[in-house]
Amino acid sequence: MPPFPDYPIPPDEEQRLRDLQRHGVLDTAPDPHFDRIVQLASEVLGMPVALVSLVDRDRQWFLARHGLEAQETPRQMAFCAHAIAGDRVLVVPDALADERFNTNPLVLGDPHIRFYAGAPLRSPEGHNLGTLCVVDQKPRQLGAEQLEMLELMADLVMRELELRRLTSLCPVTGLYNRSSFFRLGEQELQQARRDGVPLALLNFDIDDFRQINNRWGHQAGDRVLQDVCRLAQGRLRPQDLFGRIGDEEFAVLLVGLENGAALALAETIRGDVEAMAGVFSRSDYHPQISGGLTTLAAGDRSFADVFYRADQALYLAKGNGRNQIAKLLAE
Question: Which is catalytic among the residues 13, 69, 248, 274?
């Protein structure tokens, strides 16, 4: 196989990959919504091939495809790996005349790509997750109106992706719900082991939360949940994972933090909550939280093992008087 140039790496690559993972659509079953969009793109633009391509770390995976059998290709071969490095549609009128692609196996062999146009799928966080692209086996050009149509259809894809992501969020707090948090937590655990980086998990809940609902009602309880989450989120980094696990229970996965730094952050969050102004007019109520902290250990078989240990630490904090952080590490 003749050599061909490497693809560009976006400056936000790690954040982009994390954003892609947290949308939760890689390696999922075919979806008729996306299938209809690629069929529409093929028909409107007169192209034999249309794809929704998601660019993962080492591959591009097709969420939807029309006119192509392959489910994925290596990222090194992906035209879309070049498209996500920019903010506008990438157009390759003739791949054989383009030094970036004229030795690419997808050009020299099946599916014999000659023309490519890919519009980036830009998330609300500002990361290009992949493209909506169209392909032909002969050189072509697209007019301004056709390029605009491709971008509009890419927007439809991104909106549909966002709608799916929103179903994984708690409607009150905007945090990941329990099932999504566990799914993403398992992915982060596997990634941390591949990269050799530490992970810490903080489970916390709001002390005596039921008295808020009983005394002031559920709307007041929701207000407390939102205010506590807002304070905690202000201390977290983009790579951290924050979820609502139960009625008043939350979990924070701290990516790349050792035990000492994680404990300091947990104490900062606890102190922030304790120092909150009264959340209700003419009220002396001040929320407090109890938390349990642990770190990823070599013997942990799954994210559930880490979560169980953090929960045990949370029970220790409650048993020792509440409004504190307890730490429990693997033996």
Answer: 248
Helix (H) or strand (E) run with residue 293 in it: strand 289-295
248 catalytic? Reply is yes
Pairing between β-strand 90-92 and β-strand 249-255 as defined by DSSP bridges? unpaired
Sheet holding 115-122, edge to edge: 72-74, 59-66, 49-55, 128-136, 115-122, 90-92
- Which architecture characterizes domain 13-166 according to CATH? 2-Layer Sandwich (3.30)
Contacts of 84 by beta carbon, 8 Å cutoff, 6+ apart: 10, 16, 55, 120, 128, 129, 130, 131
CATH superfamily of 178-327: Reverse transcriptase/Diguanylate cyclase domain (3.30.70.270)
pLDDT-derived band of residue 244, with 50, 70 and 90 as boundaries?
very high
Domain ranges, ordered by start, for the chain: 13-166, 178-327
pTM for this model (two decimals): 0.79
